[in-house]
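FW: tagging you since you asked about this chain on Friday. Here's the raw sequence from the shared folder, copied in full. Didn't touch anything.
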Amino acid sequence: MKKIHIIIGVVVVIAVIAVFFWVKSALKSNYIEIGSNENIEPTPTQIQSIRDIGEWEFLSISAEEMVDTVRKGFFSDDELVRIYYGTLRLGINMQNLSEDAIRVQSDTLQVTLPKVTLLDKDFIDEAKTKSFYESGKWPPQAHQALYQKAHRQMLHHCLTKENLTTAQSNAESQLRNLFTQLGYKTITLTFE
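HL: got it, structure written out here
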């Protein structure tokens, strides 16, 4: 009887060892490992959300221009003087982001942005335009010529290097803040 108990014990031990190795090999081929990836990759959805921002204004400049014209006459001169008001908005149209504008290289987010530009070319508010002085009859072409002159002067006075630099600095600050809130720690911003 003792021999039978020893044989049964040995068979049970061998069976337990066999089952252990079988379970171990089965688990080894079908396992799930959970880990974390410290790199944050921009997803197509995030990039599209940034594009969907559209025009992002970083500097608004109010302008006022007084323009005039004189028409020489035989007995007297006719004069037309008007005051134009406008608001020039400098910023970035995020729709212009290129496909590879946002990429991750090791732990750094690299962003290449479109340059800061004038967002709207129709910046003169014609409802606020005032006739300061008008003598004589002026055709619509004369009024249009004054409008174009005011438009050129506003562009010249407002699209200065200093204003473009200020708008770009504001853009860098706001975009760095946006990407920091999305979880990126090291951010390199450049402009086209």
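FW: Strands lie at 55-71, 78-93, 102-105, 108-113, 117-118, 130-134, 186-191.
HL: agreed, and Residues 2-29 form the longest helix (28 residues).
FW: great, closing this out.
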